[in-house]
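ARCHIVE RECORD
Type: protein–small molecule complex
Small molecule: BIS(adenosine)-5'-pentaphosphate
Source of inputs: curated submission
Record status: active
Notes field left blank by submitter.
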Amino acid sequence: MRIILLGAPGAGKGTQAQFISEKTGAIPVSTGKIIRSAVKNGTPAGTIAKRYIDVGRLVPDEIVIEMLKERLKEDDCKDGYILDGFPRNISQALALDKMGIDIDIVIDILVFDSDVVERLCGRRVCDNCGATYHVDAKPSAKGELCELCGGILITREDDKPEIVLERLRVYHAETEPLLRHYNAQIKLRTMRSFPTVEDTAKGVLAILGESAV
Ligand code: AP5
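STRUCTURE (tokenized, with ligand):
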């Protein structure tokens, strides 16, 4: 089972990827997380990537594609995965095709731009394991600590309002054209993000059930 989650920044891709993973066993693969880990570790690719992430732009294709290829070679991806944040433009989608990867379903999660800033400004992520929370919609049971690993919850640097607006601009310009691409392949399913994580998860489950994946 191979699933792509599309959607604007803050649409809830990471949150729903985690949910789908718990239900199906498919592994969430987030290029955003992979890149942030490379930045944290100070790798050469991470050092270049930081310049783009910090201003809300896409990291160059050749860097991200290489990182994704390496991740998908790992054992835990053998039985399926959920791509969160990849592809981000047509050339990345074509790279996926070239890698011979047959995607079963592409789920686009729709969210209003006006909700995105609120969501991302209230997001907190675990500095240790990357788990995602929201101060109102999904607070950690342990307050400022991660309920999974006890790590400290932080605000992502690129969740500052001015960077979020640039990420939204990039999404509309570069990522939205993927909707036509996957619609033409008859793989696209579109759903609304509801005001709660739980209601959105029900929508995702309904799509997965109908698609029998
Ligand atoms: P990435 O980490 O992929 O960020 P993004 O796509 O902008 O998505 P987000 O992680 O911000 O949001 P999400 O949709 O996962 O929402 P979440 O579930 O966290 O990428 C970051 C950067 O890395 C990019 O800008 C780029 O520079 C680079 N990059 C990554 N991939 C790349 C690629 N392929 N090519 C080039 N560059 C790349 O939810 C958001 C918040 O809302 C959370 O707090 C959550 O709790 C809350 N929430 C979720 N669902 C709901 C709901 N239904 N109701 C209320 N609150 C909700």
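CURATOR ANNOTATION: The longest strand covers residues 2-7.
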